[in-house]
Amino acid sequence: MPRQSDGETSPRRGDSETLTVSSRYSPVGSSPSGANGIPPRRGQKVSIQGRAIYRGQAHGLALVSTAAIGFLGGVDPETGVVIEAGHPLYGQSVAGRVLVFPTGKGSTVGSYTLYRLARKGLAPAGIINARSEAIVAVGAIISGIPMVDLIDISQIETGDTVEIDGEDVRIG
């Protein structure tokens, strides 16, 4: 949010306007876009910097969805399994995975559902979003789950080894 001072507004660190330029990917040890601006090929180690929503470290296998996730009614808090009918991750467990999805959706109780998953040891090890929203962000914060957004999630596939370290995401 803009900081207000004497009727003027100016962005502060953490505003998306100042951070979207730092959302980038690059093969480790090479130029940001690879040769001729072409994204890196699968199998290369990739480093992406985004915005840390909840700073921390996480490591695990990616579980990637192209669809938004709603935790209330979308993920069973007793098992950690996605139960939303028709969801691309239906039937899969989020427990211990680095959960990658575009954004969250649904009820504010979804934050508490994520917290319940964490209390039972069934929460994702980390969360990566293209764009965070308040429900998932609050859930990650109260649950102590490292979370990063402003990430080009198309660079991550289910089964990739992913590491979150603050605002840095390493794939491969």
Describe what this molecule looks like in 3D.
This protein has 172 residues and is of the alpha/beta class. Helix content is 15%, strand content 27%.
Topology:
Elements: E1 3-5, E2 8-10, H1 16-19, E3 24-27, E4 46-49, E5 51-54, E6 57-64, E7 98-101, H2 109-119, E8 126-129, H3 134-143, E9 147-149, E10 161-165, E11 168-171
Parallel strand pairs: 6-7, 7-8, 8-9
Antiparallel strand pairs: 1-2, 3-4, 4-11, 5-9, 6-10, 10-11
Helix pairs in contact: 2-3
**CATH homology superfamily name:** Phosphohistidine domain
Number of domains: 1
Distance between the termini: 34 Å
Portion in beta strands: 25-35%
Please tally the β strands and state the result: 11
Number of contiguous helices: 3
Shape: globular
| Mean of pLDDT | 82
Q: Strand order within the widest sheet?
A: 3-4-11-10-6-7-8-9-5
CATH fold name, please? Answer: Glucose Oxidase, domain 1
| Biggest sheet record | 9 strands, mixed
CATH class: Alpha Beta
Rg from alpha-carbon coordinates:
16 Å
**Helix content range of the residues, please?**
10-25%
Class from helix and strand fractions: alpha/beta
